[in-house]
Structure formats: structure tokens, C-alpha cells
Amino acid sequence: MAAPVKVTVTGAAGQIGYALLFRIASGQLLGADVPVKLSLLEIPQAVKAAEGTAMELDDCAFPLLSGIEITDDPNVAFAGANVALLVGAMPRKAGMERGDLLGANGGIFGPQGKAINDHAADDIRVLVVGNPANTNALIAQQNAPDVPAERFTAMTRLDHNRALSQLAAKLQVPVTEIKNMTIWGNHSATQYPDLFHAEVGGKVAAEQVDPEWLRETFIPTVAKRGAAIIEARGASSAASAANAAIDHVHDWVNGTDWTSAAIPSDGSYGVPEGIISSFPVRSVGGRWEIIQGLEIDAFSRERIDASVAELIEERDAVRELGLI
Ligand code: NAI
């Protein structure tokens, strides 16, 4: 068997961690023939809970799981890591201003970026799940100057999957009938799920739905789905977030024709270079590429610009805080 791939998961004792680790260990992240070694990074108070999860992983006797390491030291967790899933983050607490939230997360993602820079394997790929995901990814990236910038990505795949499922339900088609869905911008309420390039049965999706449904129902339902899950479940999305993280890394490594991922902009579609924004992407040879040449009409332009403006504000705020 090949040498195991080291996958580091931060926030391993949290809800998403619990939904994610078993799927990684079972081979769904990288493939059914790729052995994995898991490294679980937690804060000291949660190391014991992570140890409990590791006991359960042991009890699954996963054939592909070659070892589990548990630590509260990022330098240990990221040593030799090939894939890093940065899930643990500082949640927004009541009364917290945006600057406080960004600052608190800078205290997590800055040192983690540096540890990745100093200790990870040369082929390291990073997916940031912890919110605010796009800007946390930017902070980690900017603290890892020796790692190619493109290796830092943030997750909008859950939004993408939500958009697929909402459209499939509306048109009463299987999700597999839908092609070329795109989420643009920030993983936040400003994100723009785009039906003008999505196709169902070979025809533009936006032309198959009522414009008012698209504007007043589809876009806000996808963008605010996270809040609706909290309202219904009493806890935030966890299994669906873990599923999306699996999808993102699986497709990054194994290739895909078209999906959504937040990756560093090269200036495409008027998104300033360096901003980690969601785009329509394909993955070829283990690298994300932004799908080029799409025509963006005024309706889409306005929404993409609004979400990108929010990302620029977040970037400027973390710059002012000296985090990047
Ligand atoms: P959770 O609160 O259940 O777990 C978070 C875990 O992170 C905790 O065990 C905590 O101890 C750990 N942690 C905190 N600081 C850490 C650090 N410095 N190093 C290592 N571990 C640390 O939260 P949950 O539900 O697992 O969500 C995790 C994050 O994912 C949140 O920021 C949430 O907003 C975000 N999220 C993002 C989604 C996306 O689509 N991008 C979707 C759903 C959630």
C-alpha cells in the first residue's frame, strides 16, 4: 500500500469534526485506495473530547486509517501534513463587533498559517471551513509566504450543494440533472448563487424559473440556509458542512469539471487579485482553475460586486489589525 496521506483537522472535537473524521478515515476524502493518518488539533480544554473521538475511530477498525495523533500544538499537528482542514474557529459571541471577531480569528489562523508554512509537506492543500472562512483563509495564507498562495482555499461548497438541492426541488428534477451551478463571493449572507450559467436539461436554469422566485426565494433561501438550520435544529449545520468539505477536497485532488470554491482571485471577473472569493472553478491535475469567459449581466454584476465589496472590507479590516 502507498504511504499514508497526513490529514490534519482542527476543531476536531467539534460538531463538524465529529461528522468529518469518520468519513475521512473511511476513504471518502481521498479515495478508497489511499491510506490516511489523522492529526487532530484542538485547544487544551477539548483534547480529552478529541481523545474520545479517536477511541471511536479506533473502534471502527477502518482499513485505511494508519494512525491518529492528537495535539494542542499547531507545529505538531501540521508537521508533514498533506491536507489541512481548518474547522476550529472563534464563533461570534453576543455583542461582538466584526473587528473583534476578525481579531480573535486572526489569533487562531495567523499562527496556524505560520505552522503550516514551517512544517507542512510541500504538497499541502488547505481548506478553511471555520468562519469567517474566506478571510480566515486569507489570514492563514498571508502568514505562510513559502506555500504557494493557491493552496489556501475556503469552503463555499455547502452553499453550492444547497443551491443544487433548492433548484432540484423547485424543478422536480434529480440534482444530477443540474450542471454548472456557481456560488460567487463570500461565504456569508451576501453570497450570490447564480442560475444564469447553471443548466438543467441543457437549458439555462434562470429561464426555467419565475424571476421573482429566483430573486425573492431562491437567492435568500440559499444565502440564509445556515440560519434556518440553526432555527430548526438548535445547532448549526454539521453533517452537511462535513459533507461539503469532503466534496471540496475530493474534487480538488481528483478533478472535476465545474463546481464552486473560494480560491485566491487572479483578477478574473473584476474580483481584485488576492481576494479569496468563490468562483465557478474546475480542478485539473490537482489545481483549481477559474472557469473563464462567462458573460455577466447587470443583475449578476451587482450581486457579485456587493459580495466582493464585503470581502474587500474584511481584508482591509484584518490589514488594519496587522493580521496580514
Ligand atoms: P463547534 O463549536 O462544534 O466546534 C469547534 C471546535 O473548534 C471546538 O471543539 C473548539 O474547541 C475548536 N477550536 C477552537 N479554537 C481552536 C483552535 N485555535 N485550534 C483548534 N481547535 C480549535 O463548531 P462547528 O459546528 O464544528 O463549526 C466549526 C466552524 O465551521 C464554525 O466557525 C462554523 O461557523 C463554521 N462553519 C462553516 C461552514 C461553511 O460552509 N464554510 C458551514 C458550517 C459551519
From TrEMBL:
One term of GO molecular function: L-malate dehydrogenase (NAD+) activity
Could you tell me which InterPro entries the record lists for this protein?
L-lactate/malate_DH, Lactate/malate_DH_C, Lactate/malate_DH_N, Lactate_DH/Glyco_Ohase_4_C, Malate_DH_AS, Malate_DH_type2, NAD(P)-bd_dom_sf
Record's signal peptide: none
**Residue span, Lactate/malate dehydrogenase C-terminal domain:** 156-317
Q: What class of enzyme is it?
A: oxidoreductase
CDD domains per the record?
MDH_chloroplast-like (cd01338)
The residue stretches assigned to a coiled coil in this entry are none
Q: What is its EC number?
A: 1.1.1.37
Q: Where does NAD(+) bind?
A: G11, A12, A13, G14, Q15, I16, G17, N105, Q112, V129, G130, N131
KW NAD (keyword) present: yes
UniProt keywords, alphabetically: NAD, Oxidoreductase, Tricarboxylic acid cycle
List positions binding substrate.
Answer: R92, R98, N131, R162
Q: Which residues form the active site?
A: H187 (proton acceptor)
Query: Out of the domains of life, which is the source?
Result: Bacteria
Q: Which reaction(s) does its UniProt entry say it catalyses?
A: (S)-malate + NAD(+) = oxaloacetate + NADH + H(+)
Q: Where is the Lactate/malate dehydrogenase N-terminal domain?
A: 5-146
**Role according to the record:** Catalyzes the reversible oxidation of malate to oxaloacetate.
Q: Which family does it belong to?
A: Belongs to the LDH/MDH superfamily. MDH type 2 family.
Query: What's the protein here called?
Result: Malate dehydrogenase
Q: Which organism is it from?
A: Nonomuraea roseola
* Gene of this entry: mdh
